[in-house]
Structure formats: structure tokens, C-alpha cells
Specification:
The chain is of the alpha+beta class. The chain has helices spanning 3-15, 18-54, 80-85, 127-131, 155-161, 202-208, 227-238, 253-293, 296-304, 309-346, 354-380, 384-388, and strands at residues 60-65, 90-98, 104-105, 119-123, 135-138, 150-153, 171-174, 177-185, 197-201, 217-222, 246-248. Strands 1, 2, 3, 4, 5, 6, 7, 8, 9, 10 and 11 form an eleven-stranded mixed beta sheet that branches.
Length: 391
């Protein structure tokens, strides 16, 4: 019998009993949908946890000057940021450089000794991306404003200066020069030194304030898996002449928590997936076995009309595979819909692992084959009189 004939025979068997075929496929679909939904909801929860931990700076390292052998304060080379950016696993870098002797005042009438503890820094334009800084008001420095006397204030610095919003007519005195305030930052959890800072463009700091171009803090981001490897080479890369005079931060404790959570979720997903697949498989097998055993009278009739054992066996196997394919595909779609709906309702990213969908459908076909094979072989071995006598 050709493959096309096998499919037609199996489809004909399903069409003659549409209600039973629908209910059987529904039973299979529920089992696969449960497996896909359990794995999908767990994966979405894991993605949300990873996203929350990422906001804690799990992949952020900082490089700063350490101490010299004589106890003095070391300095980073002007080329430190560029050298660090060449490390292959590094995904982004940015830097600030402290501008010495550049006090920040609201007006020129305030005594120089009352500087409010505000520090002036030269800042790279990519600083918000590297530190997660967000603007409360105004705009950030760009290639154009970074060359002119324009400043962005940290949250505490703006409060100390009595500035609520960034406006065109708002100016501050930095190092004896007037700078227009173009932006005010929200508090920066990953870089608290920015909260009490007045940030000016790198080029403007060099041209107007006499900044020497040496960074005092470099922010480095890389993939979570590469944080330790990047950290191990940061000192020698930032200052090859004196790597022991470079201070490198240690990875955030949140990174260890994220890695531990990842391992726990991987084990949980494998366990839940195996249990759900087992439950779904039992449901598929039960549906197919009952479906075949209920039709022994029909088998006897077909055998008495001349159908061979091979044709009986092929017919039931074809029906089993068609039911499994319909139920598996429907279950995968239903599970994906349930996962998406639940994730959206919780505000999570919807994550549906491809291996769960494809594995669910493949497992359904495999289980359907095994579940249909036994009763098909048993049915084919029944004699016509024995099969017709079955209740």
C-alpha cells in the first residue's frame, strides 16, 4: 500500500467518527498544551528574573586609579578607555574624568569655600548606556553640545544648587566659566558618584577647563559569562606600565545570584518538562489504546470481508499518527497561547522555548506510534469470529 493510500485510509477512519476523533485529539492536545505551558511560563518567569537582576549591574565593572608604591594616588593613562574597548568580550565602555580645581557654584557671589561638595567631571557621550543613567529633565550631552559650555547635573547636585528643571536660561559656574544646564539626571544606582556631579563634554572640558584627558573612572560592560575573564585582564590593559596601580571593582553579588538562579531554573525546567511530557504521554497512550480496543467489532467485520492483517495494522497505525499529529500541533498552539497570555498579564516577556514546542510534537508522534502499535498488532491477530463476538 502506498503512503498516500495509507494516509487516506487513516483519514477515512477518522472522518467516519468525527466526534470521537475530535475528543481523542482534544485529549492529546490538552496533554501537550500542559507541557508547553508549564515550560513556557517557567521560561518567561526566568526571563523576567534575569531582566530584574540585569538592572542591578551584573555585568558592569569599573576601573579607577589605585595607589602608587609610595602611597600616592596613581593616574590612568589617557589611552585606558580605548585599550579596554579592544578586549574582545567587552560590549561597551564609557568614562568620566575628574576636572581638578573646578568648583561648581550657582552664582559668582557664593564664597569659594562653600562649593557644596559638587565635583566637575568630563563625561563621554555614551555614559548613560554604560551606567543606566536616565534623565529627569532636559537632554544628555551629544557630539555637538559636548564641545560647548553645556552641563548635565546629577540629582543631588541639582538639588544643592536649587535647580529643579533644565532650561535654556539656567546656568552654573564651573571652574570660573559659565555653563548652560541642559539636563538633570535621576539618581544613578549603579554609579552614585554621578549624583553629586556636574558633567560636561570631554572636548569642552579639555578646551575650557584645562582637563588633561585622563579618565578617573572607566565603566565596562561585557556578557555575564565573560565578566570574570574580562576583570582578570582589566588592570594590565588599562595601564600596562603599572597594572598594580589600577583598582578594578569586583563583580556584583547579583551576578552570582543570577548564575545560581539560572542553574536552579535549568534544573526546574528539565524536571517540569520531563514530568509534563510523561503525563502528556500517558494521556496520549491511554487515548489511543481505548480508541483501538473499542473497535474490535469493526476489525472483525473487515477481516471477514478479506482485509489482511497487514492492512488492519497499517490502518490503525495511520489513524494513531494522524490523531497524534492533530493533537500535538493543536496542543503546541494552545500551550503557546496560554503562555503568552499569562506572561502579558504579569508584565513578563513571553518566552516559548522552541525545544518545548518541537519536542512536544515529536514526542506526541513517537508516543502515538508506540501507543497505536500494540493495539494495532493485537487487533490484526484477532480472528474474524473472535473480533465479531467482542462486546
Amino acid at each position: 500500500m502506498r503512503s498516500g493510500d495509507v494516509v487516506r485510509v487513516g483519514a477515512a477512519g477518522l472522518r467516519t467518527r468525527p466526534m470521537r476523533a475530535v475528543l481523542s485529539a482534544l485529549g492529546i492536545a490538552i496533554g501537550i498544551a500542559a507541557m508547553v505551558a508549564v515550560v513556557g511560563v517557567s521560561s518567561s518567569s526566568r526571563a523576567e528574573l534575569d531582566r530584574a537582576l540585569a538592572t542591578l549591574g551584573t555585568n558592569l565593572l569599573t576601573v579607577a586609579p589605585g595607589d602608587t608604591l609610595t602611597g600616592g594616588t596613581a593616574r590612568l593613562p589617557a589611552t585606558a578607555e580605548g585599550m579596554i574597548s579592544r578586549i574582545r568580550p567587552v560590549t561597551s565602555t564609557s568614562a568620566i574624568g575628574k576636572v581638578p580645581d573646578a568648583d561648581v557654584f550657582r552664582t559668582g557671589r557664593i564664597p569659594e569655600t562653600d562649593n557644596g561638595g559638587i565635583t566637575a567631571y568630563a563625561a563621554r557621550t555614551g555614559l548613560p548606556d554604560a551606567t543606566g543613567a536616565a534623565l529627569r529633565s532636559g537632554t544628555w550631552l551629544n557630539a555637538a553640545t559636548g564641545r560647548y559650555p553645556a552641563a548635565v547635573l546629577g540629582a543631588e547636585a541639582a538639588e544643592r544648587l536649587g535647580i529643579g528643571d533644565a532650561r535654556a536660561d539656567t546656568r552654573v559656574l564651573i571652574g570660573g566659566r559659565w555653563f548652560s544646564v541642559i539636563g538633570i539626571l535621576e539618581p544613578v544606582a549603579l554609579a552614585p558618584e554621578l549624583d553629586s556631579a556636574a558633567l560636561v563634554g570631554w572636548s569642552a572640558a579639555e578646551a575650557v577647563l584645562g582637563f588633561d584627558g585622563r579618565p578617573t573612572r572607566v565603566y565596562v560592560r561585557s556578557a555575564d559569562a565573560d565578566v570574570e575573564a574580562v576583570r582578570s585582564v582589566l588592570g594590565a590593559t588599562a595601564n600596562p606600565q603599572a597594572p598594580n596601580e589600577v583598582k578594578v571593582s569586583r563583580p556584583s553579588d547579583a551576578l552570582a545570584a543570577k548564575q545560581a538562579a539560572s542553574k536552579a531554573f535549568t534544573g526546574l525546567l528539565l524536571g517540569l518538562g520531563a514530568v509534563a511530557l510523561l503525563v502528556g504521554g500517558v494521556g496520549v497512550a491511554n487515548t489511543m489504546v481505548i480508541s483501538v480496543l473499542e473497535r474490535r467489532a469493526e476489525i472483525g467485520l473487515r477481516r471477514s470481508l478479506g482485509a489482511t492483517r497487514g492492512q488492519i495494522r497499517t490502518q490503525f497505525l495511520a489513524e494513531s499518527l494522524l490523531l497524534s499529529a492533530l493533537g500535538g500541533a493543536g496542543g503546541a498552539l494552545l500551550g503557546a497561547a496560554v503562555t503568552t497570555g499569562y506572561a502579558v498579564s504579569q508584565g513578563w516577556p513571553a518566552v516559548i522555548p522552541a525545544w518545548a514546542v518541537l519536542g512536544g510534537v515529536a514526542a506526541t508522534l513517537a508516543i502515538g506510534t508506540l501507543a497505536g502499535l500494540y493495539p494495532a498488532v493485537r487487533a490484526s491477530r484477532l480472528s474474524p469470529t473472535e473480533a465479531l463476538a467482542a462486546p
